Amino acid sequence: MNLSQEVPLSWFLLLSAALFALGVIGFLIKRNLITVFMSIELMLNGVNLSFVTFAHQWHAVKGQIFVFFVMLVAAAEAAVGLAIIIAVFRARATLAVDRIDLMKL
Amino acid sequence: MHLILFVVFAGFCLAGAINLLLQSHPINSALSLIVVMTSLAVLYLMLGAEFLAAAQVIVYAGAIMVLFTFVVMLLNAGQEERTRGSRAAHLVGFPAVVAILAVIATVILHAQGLGTASLSGGITTTEELSTILFTKLLLPFEVTSVLILIAILGAVALARHEDGEPREPEERTSGQ
User: Does A3 touch chain B (CB under 8 A)?
Assistant: First the structure.
């Protein structure tokens, strides 16, 4: 096998699809609020890899700018989401999603 | 060389993601997510996105994951208890995941004209990126800064105590 050969872009896309699927599975099977939130970040990263791959394919900068905005929004989302998790923990004293089943405090 | 780089870091990526699912302690999941994000930064470099690779390390693996580990330690989150979960997740969720993954994989594998990636390929410099960002996309950029500001205010407002002092158990009973 020629080790210096270039990597086909479809491998990157497959990796991004696999990361997204693993994120969805984590969202479904994890029972800790923080880990569920981490699975969402994993999905965002999978989609970002897809964006960067297509930006490379079409030599377009806009795909990378999309990723840049996704990162900014993900940072805002993580800050607000973790603050909500802290508020929920303060009200319920638990992080298990099975026990957080009411909208009111 | 490119192939070795890709295989190693894609392997790190997948191993970290699978480890995130298998670990039962949130701090271990957070650390494996850092592995995933840092390996993704290397893959971004292979795709010629130098600015995004740096931003991935700084923003994702740095800022966001510090926030995660900080919250895990602040809340003293212990082992998660494994339960069955909802039946809807088993009946609809997992088949849907498999179906989506199968469709995407089929489309990608049948796609024509996809190029290749190498370190010697074209690199999108930070200059190109910022030229578009600060000329054509200036308004969305500024709107995002307002969004971040609102997020900071919202996070502070959500995370602090309502009355500004720690609540005692006996106060809660009298307030109700």
Answer: yes
Q: Let me know if residue A22 belongs to a domain.
A: yes
Of B40, B43, B71, the CB nearest to A85: B71
Tokens linked to B127: 């200059």
In chain B, residues with a C-beta closer than 8 Å to the C-beta of A57 are 114-115
Give domain status of residue B60, yes or no.
yes
Interface contact flag, B49 A89, Cβ < 8 Å? no
The region of weakest confidence among A60-69, B16-25, B100-109, B163-172 is B163-172
What is the ipTM metric for this complex? Answer: 0.90
> The domain containing residue B138 runs over which residues?
125-162
How far does the CA of residue A90 sit from the closest CA of chain B (Å)? Answer: 9
In this structure, of A101-105, B61-65, B100-104, the range with the lowest mean pLDDT score is: A101-105
**In CATH, what number is assigned to the domain containing residue A60?**
1.10.287.3510
User: Could you report the per-residue pLDDT of A79-96, keeping only the tens digit for each?
Assistant: 999 999 998 888 888 888
Give the C-alpha separation, A38 to A43, whole Å: 9
Element (H, E) at B117: strand B116-117
